[in-house]
Design brief:
By secondary structure, the protein is an alpha/beta fold. It has helices at 6-17, 39-49, 64-70, 75-88, 105-108, 122-131, 151-158, 197-200, 248-262, 295-311, 328-338; strands at 22-24, 31-35, 58-60, 93-98, 113-117, 135-137, 164-165, 178-181, 188-191, 208-209, 238-243, 267-271, 285-288, 316-320, 343-345. It is built from eleven helices and 15 strands. The longest helix is centred in the last third of the chain and has 17 residues, at 295-311. The structure holds adenosine monophosphate and magnesium ion (MG).
């Protein structure tokens, strides 16, 4: 990351310009990129990932000239775009604005909008700059699987399906960018990420947040954030999420694990540094997301943990919910979707005086 070989970057940039596919690191997760101006290359992204044809891609830029090429907006939307770009770019924020015709419809699945992001990762920026064209990219995983946060994850999913994989080490943020729609009648966070609604509200006056905890949409409904309609980010294992107060929470999970073991399932636990001690006796794969108090650490570990459960042949993952706020919303959003949209709330046991016991 800090010692980039520009000869390698020039090679990858050629591949992009010639219509090929390059996997590259960003500060959020690894991307699977093609020239955003080449519709054939963009179609190949969908093929390589097995991605549904109605889930649009994000266009990655490395300067503001490229922003002009891909967006078609003025007036208040332009003002807002400039202010948000100044506050959060380069960084883990995708802005949905109106699409310029220069961007082929395939990038946005026919929507009149386009998602744009200016990444901060030096390798991503060097690649886009050298290519001289914006790079359209979703995450570099097979569709539905957890996003890749390490080169080994990309190699596992994409080797043989793309032209180049750049190994840039581990991604810092670990969950995908915040998606913020500034093209709709009301500005809205469509996908939570490391940039929070609170932070966005320090720049724009009003904005809301899509309620991602509502049931799955019908497949023929046109969702505002197309990616949200799929079970996603999921390991092969079944994921169950439990929310409640510790230690009741852990006791409840341990009972559930005993049931699962009786039925012959191999189990995994996704705990935190503070709770992992409760699972010492569990015969299974017990991982910590990090400290309960550090949502950024949880975000950066989440997808690696989900992939490790698969590597270890786990059938059922029992995950503790983490607190909301900061990147916690993004972590819960991804876990919730890996679980197919359900959370079990564990009732807190109280003594006769109402104290939690
Ligand atoms: P990925 O980061 O791989 O999940 O892909 C990009 C995600 O950004 C999609 O799944 C959508 O949720 C969102 N996105 C990209 N472009 C648009 C758009 N034009 N309108 C709404 N959401 C979008
Ligand atoms: Mg993705």
């Amino acid at each position: 990351r800090n010692n980039i070989d520009m000869k390698d970057i020039a090679y990858c940039a050629d591949v992009i310009r010639n219509g090929g596919l390059v996997c590259f690191p960003t500060e959020t997760v690894y991307g699977l990129g093609a020239s955003a101006f080449n519709s054939e290359a963009v179609k190949n992204i969908y093929k390589a990932k097995g991605r549904p044809a109605d889930n649009p891609l994000i266009v990655h830029i490395s300067d503001y000239k490229m922003l002009e090429l891909v967006t078609d907006c003025d007036g208040e939307q332009r003002n807002v775009l400039n202010k948000l770009a100044e506050a959060f770019w380069p960084g883990p924020l995708t802005l949905i604005s109106h699409r310029d015709d220069a961007v082929p419809a395939e990038v946005s699945c026919g929507l009149d909008t386009v998602g744009i992001r200016f990444p901060s990762h030096p390798i991503a920026r060097a690649l886009i700059e050298a290519a001289g064209v914006p790079i359209a990219a979703p995450s570099a995983n097979l569709s539905g699987k957890p996003s890749p946060t390490r080169a080994e994850h990309v190699i596992e999913d994409m080797m043989g399906r793309v032209d180049v994989i750049i190994d840039g080490g581990n991604c810092d943020v670990g969950v995908e960018s915040t998606v913020f729609d500034i093209a709709g009648t009301k500005m809205s966070v469509l996908r939570p990420g490391a940039v929070t609604l609170e932070q966005l509200l320090s720049v724009v006056n009003t904005a809301d947040e899509l309620d991602w905890m509502k049931p799955h949409m019908d497949s023929d409904e046109k969702p505002r954030s197309p990616g949200l309609k799929y079970r996603h980010y999921a390991p092969n294992a079944t994921v169950n999420i439990y929310d409640g107060v510790r230690p009741n929470l852990s006791n409840y999970i341990i009972e559930e694990i005993k049931n699962a073991k009786r039925q012959g399932f191999s189990v995994g636990v996704l705990a935190t540094d503070e709770s992992i001690c409760y699972y010492k006796e569990v015969d299974g794969v017990v991982l910590s997301l990090g400290s309960l108090e550090d949502s950024l650490q949880q975000a950066s570990n989440l997808f690696h943990c989900l992939r490790r459960f698969d590597d270890m042949g786990v059938d059922m993952v029992f995950a503790e919910a983490v607190p909301k706020g900061g990147a916690g919303d993004a972590v819960m959003n991804r876990l919730y979707r890996a679980a197919g949209g359900k959370i079990v709330t564990v009732e807190t046991a109280r003594d006769s005086e109402g104290h939690i016991c």
